[in-house]
Amino acid sequence: MKIIRAIATVGSFTGISRIFGLARESLMSHIIGAGPITDAFLVAFKFPNFFRRFFAEGAFSASFVPQFSGKLASNGPAEAQVLAERVLAVLATILIIFVLFIVIATPWVIGLMAPGFSTTPERLEMAITFTRITFPYILFISIAALLSGVLNSLDRFAAASAAPIILNIIMIGAMIMLFYADLAAGNLLSWAVFLSGILQLAWLYWACWRAGFRIKLRFPRLTPEVRKIMRLMVPGAIGAGVMNINLLLDMVFASLLPAGSISFLHYADRLNQLPLSLFGIAMGTALLPSLSRQIRLGEDDKAKASQSMAVEISLQLTVPASLGLVLLSYPIIDLLYGLEGDQVSATANALSAFATGIPAYVLSKVFATGFFAREDTKTPVMIALVCIGCNLVLNIILMGPFSHVGLAMATSIAAWLNATLQLIFLQRRKWFFLSRQTLLTAAKVIISSGVMGVGLIIARDHWISILPDTLLFQICSVLGIIIYGMIVFGGMGQLTGAFNLANLRQAFRRN
Question: Which residue among 434, 461, 480 closes a domain?
Fold first, then answer.
């Protein structure tokens, strides 16, 4: 029940952040559109964000949180704080050197990340300028990730989950400024990213201070414990970041396609990230500290029960969300982004392809904690390399006939392969098994989602077509259909026993 409350906390704040994020993307699409400036900024923005997800949120959390949680449980807060300070000193030193190197080598790096930009010199120059402004963001946000790991290990999930809201608010403010001042949109947004990194770091440092962890900067020393965390980070970076690597590959291939392809994928991915972040980040963030403590204390049965519960909740949340995004991709994209007709179709098709992988991505987050909590980062790496290779081959095969949509399809297929292989290896090592109850829940969720899907198709094809084509009616119709789908799924879930609302209410009730 404690894990469910943690999931609810992380999911709630992450949901608020994603709503602000959608507002940010909607403003960007209306103000800048889908063209060279947007493509250049998105490459510059995705670059530090890739390393944030890849290292800060993925590898670092996977290696630091189990060690810190274990130290906290066995040795107490004083020694855990010393460990955090030592890791911070080494991490900050490495990051400063890394940022300086990337800023100097930006033209070469952009040439690798977006090789198609070489055919459009203006787009290439903008991408180089924007990247040099945005990339120091990785320094601030990685240190913020360490502070988030400290807070999550203390079961204080709210502050860390709320931090990304700052980024979205700052960027929304920057775009509002474009209405009142003649400013260069790409430069302004890049500086907004830089500023938001500083503010997120300040916010989380203050939250740690309030929690009693007044972390200080020490002289960097590679102690045995720090070396262990850094050693776990290297394979953990690949194991935890499969989808992020695949999305980066998508961007590289999309740069070879016609202008606007990167924007279509980005807008689709941002909407796809809403359920991924709500459920995936919430599951991984809430489960890892608890699972690490249970394994450290020898409570294997409790650890397996925690993972089973997380798998069931993941299915209950992601299967209907995935089907809903596939069926409602066009009206949602049309409402949010204000693109032209062909651009709406191009983005909606990419969203449908991305959305089919939502359950797999969230399940892989749950399965990955089973390896990371036991300090096994090598197995996820082996699985990840297979999935990245699969995505690379599928990108080459599918981008020809399906253009940018083929890239999204490849990412979803690789996500399902990743989750399947993770489950197979967990079961082989007897670390986790799909129980009969979990399989029965999955079947009930699929049946309930199928009924919901039929209802959504009927509502989409008849309701939207008879309403006037105005913004107000668009908003009402899309929200109405989404609420209608939730009601149908909720009713069917109660009838089939896919979930029990009374148990959920009891779980969320505070002591």
Answer: 434
